[in-house]
């Protein structure tokens, strides 16, 4: 039997295929198990086993060697041991790919039983004895080829599956990246809160949906820069995160977005302006507290601008954010730590400021500016000891505008440096024409804090040829108390160079009488508002008296500003002010008038003064 198989299938053998087929035909009986591997298109490699167990061993070995059989011919009947069905079952258990051909002479087992034991069905074939030689040879060839095709297919399928799974992985990674990118595009990385883009999107959705009213709030921390400057950016970041947490917790429903820096945007349902204001005031109160940041305690306050958008409102809805910003700006201007509800006047005031700023930019070139000078008189003999330089601006568009209006605008827009330099140059030139008086020049906080303020002023004055003793620098409390250590040093240096220093508008800021002793000053100028109150309010007189006493004890002069009436004049001289300035002694005058007044040198042509009635001991 085995020989017959060998001869039938081994085309490379000595017997011709035809002979083999013939001999096989004559010998078809008995049972045994040949297995075949096809080497090339026309030759098989054959193994033979006379018992099923040996066949199972051969299959096992072939798998181990990585060279599996393509097909096994299994006779159901075998010499003692396991029968063909059991052999098939065990082989199948080892190798799911092998094709099994059951060679059976009679029906011991039904095909169903066999395929149950050694399925799948499409890998089990039957040849009934007696069989044709061609049948065996063709079956072997066909099944070897099929095995190869199946195997190639399986490889291709595996490769494809691998590719698909890689593709799936990539798709997943891409989806994750995309989700992250989408999140990043709409969220702030520091706080995880929605960012400006998300805020604008939500705002425009709410606007378009035209649903019930909502509120837009802009919140900004007051003096946040100080935290960054003194404790570093890590502390600043930490503070922003903390504030954001509190805001979100307090707002509840609605959106808290970080718009950048220390600026937050809030969006929430609201129909009633008063209720919305109250809610915002609560929010501002909740985040205005002491935070412990990286071991430092940091006092924080916040300001907020608010606008209510009702579906019926006529406002340009896209403008909500800008208008809420204007309200925030007003909240800051009004002294911070508060909430302001937008009203139309805010927009007008901004337009006005913008037009002033634009006009100021051209004022010098257009020769619209002038410096006028107001005499400062010594109490004793009413000698004119100096003149305060005051800026005047008359433009075609706005007419004559008070410096109290345009100086703060120049200060906000940085134009103050250019204007200030111009005033200084004019004032120094004018002062040269006076016999001995000093010129008192106002410097805004921003000028005073400029990095090279001392050097540049010293250089300008030196160039003018005027001794620094004839220049008085007027600064306000705000200029020195916001950064008192640096200010103290700057003043010390100016004093060291010989400049006179006056603290202007004294009493209106928040400096205490006590801490002004830390600064190198020559005199205090008591603000006009206290002088106005003299004779009317007890407090004003008390303030003027105590300031004068303190100044005296510190060796400082006291200039009373805005002296308009004889009564005020009397009271101030009695209180002991060392110097007087005001309409009573002379209005600010142009350069020509001032030069002649300076030459005259005294203001004692005033009747009551000339009478010497109020001369003090
Ligand atoms: P200031 O430095 O306190 O100047 C005194 C202001 O009081 C001046 O107003 C002056 O004209 C006014 N004044 C003086 N005596 C009287 C009086 O008897 N009655 C009344 N009603 N007013 C009197 P002005 O010139 O309008 O200046 C206002 C403020 O603008 C100044 O207050 C000063 O802070 C600022 N300023 C003016 N010129 C300059 C400048 O060149 N540079 C800077 N940085 N600020 C300036
Ligand atoms: Mg002044
Ligand atoms: Mg003043």
How would you characterize the overall build of this protein?
Strands 13-14-16-17-18-19-20-21 form an 8-stranded mixed barrel, surrounded by 5 helices. The chain starts with a helix and ends in a 7-residue tail after the last helix. By secondary structure, the protein is α/β, with parallel strands linked by helices. The protein is built from 23 helices and 21 strands. The protein has 3 domains: 2-153, Response regulator (Rossmann fold, 3-Layer(aba) Sandwich), CATH 3.40.50; 196-346, Alpha-Beta Plaits, CATH 3.30.70.270; 368-613, TIM Barrel (Alpha-Beta Barrel), CATH 3.20.20. Strand 3, helix 4 (84-94) and strand 4 (99-104) form a beta-alpha-beta unit. The chain is 49% helix and 20% strand. Helix 8 (224-231) runs antiparallel to helix 9 (233-251). Mean pLDDT is 87; it is low at 12-18 and 607-617. It is rod-shaped. The protein binds ligand C2E and magnesium ion (2 copies). One magnesium ion binds next to strand 18.
């Amino acid at each position: 039997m085995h020989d017959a198989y060998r001869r039938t299938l081994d085309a490379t053998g000595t017997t011709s295929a035809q002979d083999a087929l013939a001999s096989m035909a004559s010998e078809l009986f008995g049972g045994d198990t040949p297995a075949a591997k096809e080497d090339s298109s026309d030759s098989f490699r054959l193994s033979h086993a006379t018992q099923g167990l040996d066949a199972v061993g051969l299959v096992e070995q072939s798998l181990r060697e990585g060279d599996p059989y393509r097909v096994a011919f299994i006779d159901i009947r075998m010499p003692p041991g396991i029968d063909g069905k059991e052999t098939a079952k065990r082989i199948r258990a080892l190798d799911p790919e092998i094709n099994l051909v059951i060679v059976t002479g009679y029906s011991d087992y039904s095909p169903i039983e066999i395929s149950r034991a050694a399925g799948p069905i499409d890998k089990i074939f039957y040849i009934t004895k007696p069989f044709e030689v061609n049948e065996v040879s063709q079956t072997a060839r066909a099944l070897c080829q099929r095995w190869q095709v199946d195997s190639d297919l399986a490889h291709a399928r595996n490769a494809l599956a691998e590719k698909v799974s890689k593709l799936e992985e990539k798709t997943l990674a891409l989806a994750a990246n995309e989700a992250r990118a989408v999140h990043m595009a709409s969220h702030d990385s520091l706080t995880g809160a929605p960012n400006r883009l998300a805020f604008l999107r939500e705002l425009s959705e709410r606007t378009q949906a035209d649903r019930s009213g909502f509120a837009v709030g802009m919140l900004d921390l007051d003096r946040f820069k100080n935290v960054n400057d003194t404790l570093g950016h890590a502390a600043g970041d930490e503070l922003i995160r903390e504030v954001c947490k509190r805001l979100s917790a307090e707002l509840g429903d609605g959106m808290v977005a970080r718009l950048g820096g220390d600026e937050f945007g809030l969006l929430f349902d609201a129909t009633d302006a008063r209720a919305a204001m109250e809610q915002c005031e609560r929010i501002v109160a909740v985040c205005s507290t002491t935070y412990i940041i990286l071991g430092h305690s940091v006092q924080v306050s916040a300001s907020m601008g608010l606008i209510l958008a009702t579906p019926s409102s006529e406002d340009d809805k896209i403008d909500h954010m800008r208008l809420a910003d204007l309200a925030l700006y007003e909240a800051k201007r009004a002294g911070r730590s508060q909430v302001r509800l937008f009203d139309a006047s805010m927009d007008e005031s901004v337009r006005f400021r913008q037009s002033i700023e634009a006009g100021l930019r051209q004022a010098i070139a257009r020769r619209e500016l002038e410096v006028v000078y107001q005499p400062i008189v010594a109490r004793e003999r009413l000698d004119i000891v100096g003149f305060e330089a005051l800026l005047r601006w008359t433009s075609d568009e706005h007419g004559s505008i008070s410096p109290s209006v345009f100086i703060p605008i120049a200060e906000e827009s940085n134009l103050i440096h250019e204007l200030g330099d111009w005033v200084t140059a004019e004032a120094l030139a004018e002062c040269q024409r006076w016999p001995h008086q000093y010129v008192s020049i106002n410097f805004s906080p921003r000028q005073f804090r400029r990095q090279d303020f001392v050097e540049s002023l010293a250089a300008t004055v030196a160039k003018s040829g005027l001794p620094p003793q004839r220049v008085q620098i007027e600064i306000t409390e705000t200029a020195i108390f916001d950064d008192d250590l640096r200010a103290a040093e700057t003043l010390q240096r100016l004093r060291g160079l010989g400049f006179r220093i006056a603290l202007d508008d004294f009493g209106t800021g928040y400096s205490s009488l006590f801490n002004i002793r830390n600064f190198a000053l020559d005199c205090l100028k008591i603000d006009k508002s206290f002088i106005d109150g003299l004779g009317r309010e007890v407090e004003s007189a008390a303030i003027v008296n105590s300031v004068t006493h303190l100044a005296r004890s510190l060796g400082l002069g006291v200039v009373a500003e805005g002296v308009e009436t004889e009564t005020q004049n009397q009271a101030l001289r009695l209180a002991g002010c060392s110097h007087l300035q005001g309409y009573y002694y002379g209005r600010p005058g142009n350069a020509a008038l001032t030069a002649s007044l300076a030459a005259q040198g005294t203001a004692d042509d005033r009747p009551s003064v000339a009478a010497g009635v109020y001369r003090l001991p």
